[in-house]
User: Fold this.
Amino acid sequence: NAGVTQTPKFQVLKTGQSMTLQCAQDMNHNSMYWYRQDPGMGLRLIYYSASEGTTDKGEVPNGYNVSRLNKREFSLRLESAAPSQTSVYFCASSDGPVSNQPQHFGDGTRLSIL
Amino acid sequence: GNSVTQMEGPVTLSEEAFLTINCTYTATGYPSLFWYVQYPGEGLQLLLKATKADDKGSNKGFEATYRKETTSFHLEKGSVQVSDSAVYFCALRALGESGTYKYIFGTGTRLKVLA
Assistant:
């Protein structure tokens, strides 16, 4: 039972490089989310997709773009990486905007930008 | 707006001690409340939840009661084990200003249990 799968698990980039973080869920969830986790700051929402075909900005969207490729997949792209984007990135999914069920999280991508 | 405040850590306890991690919230309407646990190098896992006032969520010896009158959802465990060492997040799901539901997380409380 895979749940939410994120790739890669670790990545080191140089400033200015670009990369895409991949996320896929197999629970038939409607909503998907991208968070970043920094020490002492908890989780901050970058972007979310309430349903297939829609995306919205969260709390800290600057420097990121997202694509909801289909119901299963939601990718996060850094176009020009900056050291301030060094963080642990988590993808999550949930039933949808009406359900009161919790989110399910992947194991994270640990990203370092030099 | 919606917010979650939880006690700062780290919390260090001896094995078999009683655990309380405080969590209070501000929310419009009737939020759902959650506790998540994060073990080193892993993602967040749902520990327990409560969806209406006076509900008690429980799992793996942990409990939390949804107290609407005090807007609290404190996490408790009667006897902690070394394996409970982790970071604990309180979270809520509530209606945001834009009219869509949002998940809001506290900053996390690190628990360290000593043998």
About this structure: The two ends of chain A are 35 Å apart (CA to CA). The first strand of chain A starts at residue 4 and ends at 7.
